[in-house]
């Protein structure tokens, strides 16, 4: 079928994939090689994710930690198998590209273009991975229970944004004599929780449907929205020295309207979804309508300058209420199994552990600030557990620990701060270290905070109450 | 999580997705918008595929025909929702890009870059679609039965390459006074069968495992290899006027070694696969190893200048022999349901029906040649059914009809021919028309040739013998 590969190899002529009026571009000529690169990258990502997850499982860590670490090993910090042009690396640094060049005798220009295209494809697949993950988390979450814990989740989210922000900003100004604006920026980088990592670990521990799990997920979603708003404030502060009030109000209103609106409309759409599914007679009658909805909501989330994953999560919550949900759960599982690991491995692959190297002077200056930020990042989220009210016997430590991972959000802050010249290099490095360590420490911490899983994950109903604090005896597995 | 979107909107600053050393490229800055475009394109593709398939089903046509036609409607020929830069169109022609520009206030340069990136992503997803389709077809095919019909399939393939090639070349030279080299080129464009379309229709008719179905699939695979070899010959002929014998021998040897080698090694790998699957304890324990194998074989097929889909088909054949096959079938289904439609809709979307417009002088000149090529294309493949020996009562018409669709292969020929200046515009147009019409006519023809499906597709064992020719009575459903 797609003979272009051969064509390019044989003739060196332009040969688009499906050339209707036959105006081939460079992109089109390279596209079979891009496919080769994507296939090889996926093989590496899957091998890494499976080996990492299995080793982690055997060492009694959450599998997702293994995927992250495996990502680090194949990524920019070590083997250079999966790297991205954003890290300032070029095609010649990539082992995959070296293999492709060896197979296809590419020119440097073609290699650069192919490297960028295949990195773009892997990036989008990773983003589809986290979208599908949040869709699945939405399907596994219980809207009624989420509503029940809504107040607690909101308070946890607000405390978890306010405490690290205040403590981080004030601490940097007083202890490290950092000027106000960079201190505010770094404080803001301490706020938002990485919902992807937390929810995946919860799911692996079978704790997603526990009261603690639902509070964490709810709070992480709200956190994400708060993070966007904090970012809008801080970014306009860094750019103009003033706060763009209109934009902040727009974000608050649109986020609230989006989440509440999608849940309200969801009640109506549910019935429509079931009617549509029952009418369809061709293959994919459940999975395609479900993904149309999920992708459309993700598109909408992105389009109104919120986030794709919020839309996907809302779509999952809505469809969780439909009668087709059990069948849908089963169908989404293999899809998620194939796409979600791409996200976690690339998160690991993108984390440059080089910033931990103390022989680089900039890193040394950053390391002491990093220690401070780490303490604030961990303590500032752990205290949120004690802001939960009216839930006697709840595992407060687990809730706090669940909010710890910062993931990419913090790195985005560091990125803007650095690009706008607000952050000094040591401060930027210390934010990156804080993000990497909270991301990697949260899975084992969360595992410890919840104690032994009562039932294996992904089968049956997980345990609701499983106190490790407060002196109650633990249920035996 | 991915706040870049907001960042770009708010600050206009560079904001890579996960900016480790924070060297942002234009690609990275645009990547959340690329994701928005991909999500919107996928929503459109899924809507089109489902609506098309359901209407086709209700009109008693194969659903895949509906997906192709729906693709034409959303594609370059009509609505311009899903278009590709290869067709010479720019971002401003794309409705998806117009929506993105309206949401994000993009500069023309950014729009072009985003248009190319998101088209590249959709193209790769479509190619992954046909790879997964062929993997699934391999899983559904029976290696033993394929071996049994191996001789017949080889003969059908050879006849199906030789007859249209000879008739096309000679006819063009004698009837239309086309010079030898362009005539050979056009004749070559008549050879290769589109295995994707044929196998999908067979699967939908529940005929994939019938003797006819297995002969068609086997012949289409061999056809594909022969097509690569014919292309190598014709391309070097067009380029240098001579045939590159070394390359032709390399292709023949590598193709044979690849297919036979993978089947022989498969017997060993089967046991290893089962052992690995049984050892794995984390999610995706079957599906990830299976896709590692499928993608690796696809990569290998591409890397040795054969085809990715041949590798995926071989991987499917091998795993079909393993004990985990039933479970694997169930797991691959939803994945295929989500990715395969992207292939068929984009095939339709890329087909420019503008070449059928008789008011354009070039098209008029092409139309009479096109009629001739169509006749050769159809008759030249239908006769192959009568080259099958030792199979009394077999549905010869169905076999011949199954070889009719040319799909992208013919377009690739037209593309190279045009790029190298060998083909005149009318000849090129006539090849494109021939490809489009054989692709669209084959599904209903195949449906007619097989008569009514005995059982609904995808469940149970399909009927083996179902003659419509030869006077035998048909088994009642």
Automatic annotation (TrEMBL), chains A, B:
Gene3D superfamilies: 1.20.1530.20. The keyword Transmembrane applies. It is a multi-pass membrane protein. InterPro entries: Cation/H_exchanger_TM, Na+/solute_symporter_sf. Keywords: Antiport, Ion transport, Membrane, Sodium, Sodium transport, Transmembrane, Transmembrane helix, Transport. The chain crosses the membrane at residues 34-52, 64-84, 121-139, 151-174, 180-203, 215-237, 249-269, 290-315, 365-388, 394-417, 429-450. Residues 48-446 form the Cation/H+ exchanger transmembrane domain. Pfam families: Na_H_Exchanger (PF00999). GO terms for biological process: proton transmembrane transport; sodium ion transport. It is found in: Membrane. The keyword Nucleus does not apply. Residues 455-477 are annotated as: Disordered. This is Cation:proton antiporter. It comes from Aerosakkonema funiforme FACHB-1375. The lineage of its organism: Bacteria, Bacillati, Cyanobacteriota, Cyanophyceae, Oscillatoriophycideae.
């Amino acid at each position: 079928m797609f003979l272009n590969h051969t064509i390019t190899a044989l003739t060196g002529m332009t040969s688009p994939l499906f050339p209707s009026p036959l105006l081939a571009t460079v992109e089109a000529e390279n596209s079979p090689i891009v496919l080769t690169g994507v296939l090889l990258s996926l093989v590496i990502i899957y091998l890494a994710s499976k080996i990492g997850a299995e080793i982690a499982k055997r060492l009694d860590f959450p599998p997702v930690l293994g995927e992250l670490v495996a990502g680090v090993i194949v990524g920019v910090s070590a083997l250079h198998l999966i790297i991205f042009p954003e890290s300032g690396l070029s095609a010649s640094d990539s082992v995959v590209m070296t293999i492709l060049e060896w197979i296809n005798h590419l020119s440097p220009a073609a290699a650069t273009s192919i490297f960028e295209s295949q990195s773009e494809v892997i990036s989008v697949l990773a983003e589809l991975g986290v979208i599908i993950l949040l869709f699945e988390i939405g399907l596994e979450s219980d809207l009624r229970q989420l509503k029940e814990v809504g107040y607690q989740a909101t308070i946890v989210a607000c405390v978890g944004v306010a405490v690290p922000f205040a403590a981080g900003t004030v601490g940097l100004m007083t202890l490290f004599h950092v000027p106000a604006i960079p201190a505010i920026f770094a404080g803001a980088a301490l706020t938002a929780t990485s919902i992807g990592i937390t929810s995946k670990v919860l799911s692996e521990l079978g704790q997603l449907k526990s009261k603690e799990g639902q509070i964490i997920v709810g709070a992480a979603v709200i956190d994400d929205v708060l993070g966007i708003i904090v970012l809008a404030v801080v970014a306009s502060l860094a750019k103009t020295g003033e706060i763009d009030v209109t934009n902040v109000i727009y974000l608050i209103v649109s986020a609230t309207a989006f989440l509440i609106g999608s849940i309200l409309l969801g009640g109506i759409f549910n019935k429509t979804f079931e009617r549509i599914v029952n009418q369809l007679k061709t293959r994919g009658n459940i999975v395609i309508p479900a993904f149309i909805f999920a992708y459309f909501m993700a598109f909408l989330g992105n389009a109104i300058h919120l986030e794709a994953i919020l839309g996907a999560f809302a779509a999952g919550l809505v469809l969780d209420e439909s009668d087709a949900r059990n069948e849908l759960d089963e169908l989404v599982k293999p899809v998620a199994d194939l796409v979600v690991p791409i996200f976690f491995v690339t998160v690991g692959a993108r984390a440059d552990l080089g910033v931990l190297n103390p022989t680089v002077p900039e890193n040394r200056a950053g390391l002491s600030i990093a220690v401070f930020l780490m303490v604030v990042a961990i303590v500032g989220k752990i205290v949120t557990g004690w802001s939960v009210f009216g839930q006697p016997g709840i595992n407060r430590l687990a809730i706090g620990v669940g909010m710890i991972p910062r993931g990419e959000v913090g790195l985005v802050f560091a990125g803007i701060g650095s690009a706008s010249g607000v952050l000094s290099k040591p401060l930027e490095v210390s934010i990156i270290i804080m993000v990497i360590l909270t991301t990697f420490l949260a899975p084992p911490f969360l595992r410890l905070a919840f104690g032994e899983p009562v039932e294996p994950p992904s089968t049956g109903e997980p345990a609701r109450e499983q106190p490790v604090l407060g002196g109650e005896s633990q249920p035996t597995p």
